[in-house]
Structures are given as structure tokens and as C-alpha cells.
Specification:
four-stranded antiparallel β-sheet, six-stranded mixed β-sheet, globular, alpha/beta
């Protein structure tokens, strides 16, 4: 379980997050939603240790603030947006970076590390890309490579920062289906920042709504994606109706009066 308790964070002295508390259970996908500037990416960065924060981030009783970066990297893997990839590396070299927390001083990957990287690529349906340069990949392919790198890191917690940004609809759907399946099969605690409310409704077990760095609601998609909450958060009138093809709500913009 990932447990975030009363977390606050600031950039250059400007407060961004204000006392956020949230739990993500093993086997569960929790989506962070909210308008631009709500603090979704900041929360991902704080939990992963990239930026300082006050409050506590814990798992299995361990406080992440007391861990070294290498120790923390054995608990949490992060899937950033694909624009962060270095184009000159091969796919295999990129995925093997996930083994860094376990390598010795010289940092040489073993045959076992390479086999784990290959299995991770196979799980995300990207083994055929193994010898390609990252700069040659499409957005959807790059995002799968980043997910394979995170799986190769072998952590119980997975954080994803806007993984569907800049992806076509088919890649958005296939990636989130894959993430949900991995959470179930590997018993991972998954926290994912998403812009699309309907993707959050479809693939998340629970949703946390952030507005101005403040946690406004946490619950199932039906509990959080309510017209009054969404309209107040996004300053936009909406209709929320039952989805015609699966359980859960469907959020539709309404005409302004």
C-alpha cells in the first residue's frame, strides 16, 4: 500500500499542494484528476522524491523520507511522459535502466537483468522493438517502453504522470488497459495522473480530485464524477450520465447558459 499523509509541497516558495492525504492499495488503480495547475504532476514528483515536501509518504511502515534514493527506487517506479526519453539509446538499453537500483558499483547488467528486461518488453507487447533506437519510436511505442522500464525496476508501487498525453485514442485505451491488467496480476499499487475524465472513469478503481493543490474528493468514479464537483473544479457545465456500454459515469460538456 502507498500511504500519503498531509503532504504539502512548494515550487520556489510558492505553495502548490496543501495537506493532501491519499491511500492506494495493492492491486488498485487510483486516478488523479483536476484542471491544469491542480497539482497532479507535483504530487507524482513529490511522492517519487523528485521535489521536497512536508508530511509523510509511507509503504509497509517505511517512511520514504528516511530512505536513500536507491532504497526508494526499490519501492517506486515512475512512468513519465515519453518526451523524457533519450533518442540515441536503444530500447533494450532504456529498459535496462530500470535495474539501476540493484546493480553494483560498476553498474553492469547481468544476463538475468537482460532476461527480465526482455520479459518486461514482452508483457507490454514491445519485444519486437528491442533493438530499435528510441528516437525512431512512435508516441505509443515510447510509452510502452517506459512502462517496460518501470516493470523491470520490480517495485510494488507504480506512478504514471499523464501517460496518455500526446497519444492517439487507440494507444490511450491500450495503455490504460495494460496498466489496469498489470495492477491486478502483479498486485501493484498504481497512482496515475490523467486529464481525460472518461478514461479515469473507465480504468480507475478510485479517483482523487485535486483543485488548487487541495484534495476536493476521493472515491469511486460514481462518487467523484458528479456534476456539482466537476462544474466547480473545471468552471464548466457538464452532464453526467450512465455510460451506455460499461458500468460507471460518462461526463459530457453542456452548453453554457
Amino acid at each position: 500500500m502507498l500511504r500519503i499523509e498531509n503532504l504539502s509541497a512548494a515550487y520556489h516558495g510558492h505553495p502548490v499542494l496543501h495537506g493532501v492525504s491519499l491511500e492506494v492499495k495493492n492491486g488498485e488503480v487510483v486516478a488523479l484528476i483536476g484542471p491544469n495547475g491542480a497539482g497532479k504532476s507535483t504530487l507524482i514528483r513529490a511522492v517519487s522524491g523528485v521535489i521536497p515536501y512536508t508530511g509523510q509518504v509511507r509503504t509497509n511502515g517505511d517512511d520514504f523520507a528516511a530512505l536513500t534514493p536507491m532504497q526508494r527506487a526499490r519501492y517506486i517506479a515512475v512512468v513519465p511522459q515519453a518526451i523524457s526519453l533519450t533518442p540515441a539509446f536503444t530500447v533494450l538499453e532504456t529498459v535496462l535502466m530500470g535495474r539501476s537500483p540493484y546493480l553494483g558499483f560498476l553498474g553492469h547488467a547481468s544476463e538475468q537483468d537482460e532476461e527480465l528486461a526482455r520479459r518486461s518488453l514482452e508483457r507490454v507487447h514491445a519485444l519486437g522493438l528491442i533493438d530499435r533506437r528510441v528516437g525512431e519510436l512512435s508516441g505509443g511505442e515510447s510509452q510502452r517502453v517506459l512502462l517496460a522500464r518501470a516493470l523491470t525496476q520490480s517495485t510494488p508501487i507504480l506512478l504514471l504522470d499523464e501517460p496518455t498525453a500526446h497519444l492517439d485514442l487507440q494507444y490511450q485505451v491500450s495503455l490504460l488497459e495494460l496498466v489496469r491488467d498489470l495492477a491486478r496480476k502483479d498486485n501493484l499499487a498504481v497512482l496515475v495522473a490523467l486529464h481525460d475524465l472518461n478514461l479515469a472513469a473507465r480504468y480507475a478503481d478510485r479517483i482523487a480530485l485535486l483543485v488548487g493543490g487541495v484534495e476536493k474528493a476521493v472515491g469511486t468514479p460514481n462518487q467523484v464524477l458528479r456534476p456539482e464537483l466537476i462544474e466547480a473544479a473545471y468552471c464548466l457545465p457538464v452532464h453526467v450520465v450512465p455510460h451506455p456500454f460499461h458500468e460507471g459515469p460518462l461526463v459530457l460538456p453542456a452548453e453554457r447558459g
